[in-house]
Amino acid sequence: MDALSFLDQELQNLKEQGLYRVPRSLTGQQKAVSTYDGKNVVNLSSNNYLGLANHPRLIEAAVKATKELGVGSGAVRTIAGQMDLHQEFEKKLAEFKNVEACLVFQSGFTANSGTVSCILGREDVIISDELNHASIIDGSRLSRAQIKVYPHADMEGLRKALTEAEGRHKLVVTDGVFSMDGDIAPLPEIVKLAKEFGAIVMVDDAHASGVLGRNGRGTIDHFDLHGQVDIQVGTLSKAIGVLGGYVAGPQKLIDYLVQRARPVLFSTSHPPAVTAAGMAAIDLLQEQPEIIDRLWENTEFFRSGLQSLGFDTGNSVTPIIPVIVGDEKQAMQLADELFDNGVFAQGIAFPTVPRGKARVRNIITAAHTESDLQYALDVFAKVGKKLGII
Question: CATH no. for residue 298?
């Protein structure tokens, strides 16, 4: 008897609901126009916001580090895997983020889940925006703290949750930029409320790092809230173009995470190539802020184009621009037809977004040309009319 036979029905259910997806296969580099499943397409699905994933300086730094230091670190950091390069990178990140210290994790997911589950426990309360990333949700569950969820960006809802929260410590946690809607958290109001109730503030800046703030320093810099947010989490795998995540904040926070955060204690540290490329990316952000300017110019061009066609782009104000369809099957059909016509924009449905909120998510990059984006708009117009969406 096949012990996993029950999965056959589960997979069939996904297919019937239009939720079964086969990841497309990339040939060549992650670029503005890429080759997926053997087809050249305008790529609107990549988190490579600044085009750094294939930037010559990052490649050069990665190759140099590999030749000098090898392809792997050989161990977790607390045993034998901490290199001088890791510490140099963290110092550079801390200076960039204007904090005392930083700690690099293997991914943005482990940075979030490892931090929340490390610093809080059963006697504590986590107050979380309902649209926060899955890594925050998982970290909250692992901590075994009480979890209160407030309606998305609803400050009255946050106040109510803080008023009702009873625990040793209170943590208010929010995405800086929300990954499916492209809106920005009302961070000044969140910080003000958290201070009023004596709560810790944690911000996940995965989609804001390299995008918002001076030289891409994130939402804290965007709102000029330096010194008022206790914990910042970011990623190195999106705008930075490489791999990993980081936690930024007071030195005592970093010291404690080194002692107790399970991803740090039980996962091998980054290979030299990844670390060196990340350092090169931070240097580029500070030397060439015009890359970020180009990202925002492209973003405004594409969003205004979609809106003029009659598509619903929700509350997006960042390079994440959803086309909200609602029906799961229709959203997936839109994504498939776009791909057939040379545009790769990923369909997103439950459980990534709530039922009835299915969409095609577009991510604009600095590497796109205006002709790339105009072509994509023309395809959206053609397919949107064909499917009756516009």
Answer: 3.90.1150.10
Contacts of residue 40, Cβ cutoff 8 Å, sequence gap at least 6? 33, 34, 342
Residues 95 and 156 in one domain: yes
Task: Select from 151, 146, 232, 143 the least CA-distant residue to 191.
Answer: 232
Residue 232, phi then psi, degrees to nearest 5: -115, 135
Backbone CA torsion sign across 207, 210, 211, 217: positive
For residues 206 and 267, state if they share a domain.
Answer: yes
Map tokens 């996940």 to a residue: 204
Q: Are 200 and 297 members of one domain?
A: no
Q: Are residues 212 and 239 in the same domain?
A: yes
What is the pTM for the complete model shown? 0.94
| Enclosing domain of residue 128 | 56-287
Do 30 and 119 fall within a single domain? no
The sheet with strand 125-129 has its strands ordered as 101-105, 245-249, 231-235, 200-204, 170-175, 125-129, 146-150
Q: Find the helix packing angle between 290-309 and 370-386, rounded to 10°.
A: 20
Instruction: Say how many domains are in the chain.
Output: 2
d(C-alpha 156, C-alpha 193), whole Å: 10
Neighbours of 163 (CB within 10 A): 10
Looking at residue 272, its pLDDT comes to 98
- Residue 1: pLDDT band with limits 50, 70, 90: low
Query: Same domain, yes or no, for 141 and 230?
Result: yes
Tell me if 10 is assigned to some domain: no
CA-to-CA distance for 262 and 361, rounded, in angstroms? 33
Separation of alpha carbons 209 and 218, rounded Å: 5
The residues annotated as belonging to the active site are: 179, 207, 238
**Residue-level pLDDT at 137:** 92
| Residues 255 and 161 grouped into a single domain | yes
Give the end-to-end CA distance of the chain in Å, rounded to a whole number.
Answer: 50
